[in-house]
Amino acid sequence: MARVTFFFDVGSPYAWLAAERVDTILPVTVGWQPVLLGGLFRAAGRGSWGVTADREAGMAEVSRRARERGLPAVRWPDPWPGDYLLAMRATTYAARLGRAREFALAAFRAAFTGGVDLGRPESLTAVGRAVGIDPGELEAGAATTASRMPPRTCAACPPRAGRPAPRRRATLPRLGRSWRRAH
Predict the structure, then answer these.
(1) Per the domain annotation, does 149 fall within a domain?
(2) Is-above-0.85 flag for pTM?
(3) 95-149, pLDDT tens digit by residue?
(4) Would you give the end-to-end CA distance of the chain in angstroms?
């Protein structure tokens, strides 16, 4: 069976919206892979829309989409966006345990329907406890070097000083208009 990888950051409301339906709309097995969105923003010289003039419009759009999909009302964490580094390390540890999906869904729901600040260690241990991960193990696992985000793997991103350039990946052929119209 084909496999698709769903890349996500538990601090992203759009990733939450996608997470709530990714397993049901794709006819393939979905692998859940945490990525640190802040690191991608930094590498691309960008930032979150949550700290721009588009913040209110973006929040309203997320709330509208949640309503349209029958999800609970959005309760935004305070602060949002916040510091999600520890949350992503905990998510990476959960992924190493084979529990990325369960942990991420619980974290997303805590953050975006419960208004929980995932930057607080006690919030993360509560999420872990809710999905059957021992709080002490989660804290220790999130603190290990192995739970830190892996080095940059984006072939399009420039290397940072002191890190090797990423390996080049094969490029996919461009699909012509006739293929797009047929599918």
Answers:
(1) yes
(2) no
(3) 999 999 999 999 999 999 999 999 999 999 999 999 999 999 999 998 876 656 5
(4) 20
Closest CA to 87 of 36, 21, 32, 30: 36
Q: If DSSP codes are grouped into helix, strand and coil, which group holds residue 5?
A: strand
The enclosing domain of 40 has a CATH number of 3.40.30.10
Q: Quote the number of domains for the chain.
A: 1
Domain assignment present for residue 182? The answer is no
With beta carbons less than 8 A apart as the criterion, state whether 50 and 80 touch: yes
Rounded (10°) CA dihedral 126, 80, 141, 162: 180
Q: Which domain holds residue 135?
A: 3-161
Identify residue 136 by its one-letter amino acid code.
G
Q: Which amino acid is at 31?
A: G
Q: Give the whole-angstrom CA distance, residue 82 versus residue 58.
A: 16
Task: Tell me whether residue 180 is in a domain.
Answer: no
Whether 138 is covered by a domain: the verdict is yes
Query: Strand runs (DSSP E) across the chain, as ranges?
Result: 3-8, 29-34
